[in-house]
Specification:
Oligomer: single chain
Structural class: mainly alpha
Distance between the termini: 54 Å
Largest sheet: none
Number of strands: 0
Radius of gyration: 27 Å
Order of helices and strands: HHHHHHH
Shape: elongated
Length: about 190
């Protein structure tokens, strides 16, 4: 009679040979420490991005100062002031207006040390009004493209509010996509020794 030899399935060697096949379970305290650490890292990263992106709406208004100082047309000065106000409103939106701030289980903001998000009509309507204003300034930029009496790059300056607003809104949405509070729902009830 022929004997058959049964083969074992191949397993890749692990980096540390003393661990078993299943990952180590975390007890409740370790889970809370891990979630708190991840929350702190996420908050730190969001603060870094906030400072980085806040430079855009605060520095770009300076590009309008030569147009205000040297142009003899009141239309150019008026548009420059409108562009500056749109850029400053974008900075306000970045810092003070929340697009769906993650809340903890009790419904309060995550970090009490941070700014309180603006509430009321300003928080409700300013992003929409600034978006429309940026769009209208971008449309107006097309009209200034070949016009005389204005320096050649003024039409590009009028595109800045729309460009900066779109970058800030996209960055704010991306920063809010990470919701550490969802990890609270994934915790399991494993008690340590």
């Amino acid at each position: 009679m022929a004997t058959t030899k049964l083969r074992k399935t191949f397993k890749y060697p692990m980096d540390n040979s003393d661990s078993d096949d299943t990952p180590e379970a975390l007890d409740e305290e370790e889970q809370e420490k891990l979630i708190a650490k991840m929350r702190a890292e996420n908050q730190e990263r969001n603060d870094e991005y906030l400072r980085l992106f806040l430079a855009l709406p605060l520095v770009t208004p300076m590009t309008f100062l030569p147009a205000i100082a040297t142009s003899s047309l009141y239309q150019v000065k008026f548009l420059s002031f409108i562009c500056i106000s749109s850029l400053l409103a974008t900075g306000y939106i970045l810092v003070f207006i929340s697009f769906n701030e993650p809340k903890n289980r009790s419904g309060e903001p995550q970090d009490p040390d941070r700014f309180e998000p603006a509430t009321g009509p300003v928080a409700q309507y300013l992003p929409y009004l600034n978006g429309v204003l940026s769009f209208l300034l971008a449309l107006n930029a097309v009209g200034w493209r070949g016009r005389g009496g204005v320096h050649l790059g003024f039409w590009i300056l009028c595109l800045q509010p729309a460009f900066v607003f779109s970058i800030i809104v996209a960055a704010k949405k991306i920063m809010l996509e990470v919701d550490i509070n969802e990890l609270e729902d994934l915790k399991y009830g494993y008690k340590g020794a």
